[in-house]
Amino acid sequence: MAAAPAEEKTEFDVVVTDAGANKIAVIKAVREIKTDLGLVEAKNLVEKAPATILEGAKKEDAEAAKVKLEAAGAKVELK
């Protein structure tokens, strides 16, 4: 009897595990992704890494956020 295939995840959390050397670029990327955050809130999120940037995001949105954050120099995980 074959095991049932695992359900594909449809919701992802985007977590910054390390801001890297260019924190300013990462903060700007966080503010582009989460437009409701002010500069201080975005800075605090980035500095307390690991920090969840998006929760329950669709796969496409999570992947786009990951690409944007990695381009800014952050290390990112999708959970």
TrEMBL record:
Pfam families: Ribosomal_L12
Name used for this protein in its record: 50S ribosomal protein L7/L12
Gene3D superfamilies: 3.30.1390.10
Organism: Candidatus Collierbacteria bacterium GW2011_GWB2_45_17
CDD domains: Ribosomal_L7_L12
TM regions (residue ranges): none
Record keywords, A-Z: Ribonucleoprotein, Ribosomal protein
Biological process annotations from GO: translation
